[in-house]
Backbone:
């Protein structure tokens, strides 16, 4: 019987995919990668519909992928297709849609184990859905307000010791040819004005945390957590602002938190979740978000936490 064939849908230099590839290879699985950005300049496809679904070959710079042999797929933020500069803008839009729905339909029709299925990932990106699901699963969450009412926002901010603003989805903005990150930001009630009315804004009570935790959980029963420490006040608010000040340590996961993580994955039909928590001095874990495609490779590199092993086991159907 041939070894399992796991398809990595990831860009060529993705660190998370590289760790998972190595963990799978150690388990004797065959591993292939398809970087969607290589299509059509360096990759091609020829697929035929059979009684059991789509069959055929993807030819990539790394070799030929026999589609009918794929038993599992690790979906790790595949990049946009790259079309020739000779295409006009309408031609480029047409080619993009055809490739997206063509490949997407073929991949999602495979009788394979997904970590995680792209349709489920798309749903799980909605932060309000994350928060409501987390509350139902037993996590502790900060008091929150989603509004475009300046008066409600001001009242919310004035009746709490501290309030922060968070983006619900787009954490990157482009302005004056510069790409900027939107960080978790303290809110001054006196600064709230009519601009709030232009769209929905998410405000939350600020958690006075001692440190952050990023936790990776899988439906295979794995939970691996890394505590993230800093003395930098800006980094304490949002660790992405101060990577050079951060310290890391593998940390134990309270059983109630682990149970809630697995309930969350089940509720949203995810095979993998990357959870962020704020931990306070009294040991309470506050749910912040679950980024189904968030990064974890640098945490494994810094601490040795066997996150890629957990994902590899899940792709191969092995329980913890």
Residues:
């Amino acid at each position: 019987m041939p070894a399992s064939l796991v398809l990595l849908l990831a860009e060529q230099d993705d660190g998370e995919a590289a760790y998972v590839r190595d963990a799978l290879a150690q388990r004797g699985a065959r591993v292939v990668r398809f970087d969607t950005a290589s299509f059509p300049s360096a990759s091609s496809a020829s697929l035929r519909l059979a009684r059991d679904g789509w069959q055929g070959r993807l030819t990539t710079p790394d070799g030929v992928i026999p589609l009918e042999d794929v038993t599992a797929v690790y979906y790790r933020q595949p990049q946009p297709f790259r079309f020739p500069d000779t295409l006009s803008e309408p031609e480029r839009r047409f080619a993009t849609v055809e490739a997206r729905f063509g490949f997407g339909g073929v991949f999602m029709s495979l009788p394979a184990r997904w970590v995680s299925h792209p349709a489920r990932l798309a749903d799980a990106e909605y932060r309000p859905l994350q928060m409501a699901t987390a509350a139902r699963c037993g996590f502790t969450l900060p008091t929150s307000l989603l509004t475009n009412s300046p008066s409600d926002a001001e009242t919310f901010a004035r009746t709490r010791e501290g309030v922060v603003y968070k983006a619900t989805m787009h954490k990157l903005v482009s302005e004056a040819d510069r790409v900027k990150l939107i960080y978790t930001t303290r809110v001054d009630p006196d600064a709230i004005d009519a601009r709030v009315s232009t769209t929905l804004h998410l405000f939350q009570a600020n958690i006075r945390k001692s440190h952050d935790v990023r936790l990776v959980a899988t439906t295979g029963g794995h939970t691996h957590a890394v505590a993230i420490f800093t003395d930098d006040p800006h980094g304490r608010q949002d660790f992405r602002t101060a990577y050079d000040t951060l310290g890391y340590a593998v940390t134990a996961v309270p059983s109630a938190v682990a149970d809630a993580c697995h309930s969350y994955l089940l509720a949203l039909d995810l095979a993998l979740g990357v959870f962020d928590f704020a931990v306070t001095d009294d040991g309470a874990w506050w749910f912040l978000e679950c980024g189904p495609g968030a990064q974890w490779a640098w945490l494994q590199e810094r601490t040795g936490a066997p996150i890629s092993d957990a994902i590899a086991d899940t792709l191969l159907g092995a329980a913890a």
Notes: The mean pLDDT is 93. The two ends are 24 Å apart (CA to CA). DSSP finds nine helices and 18 strands in the chain. The longest strand covers residues 53-60.
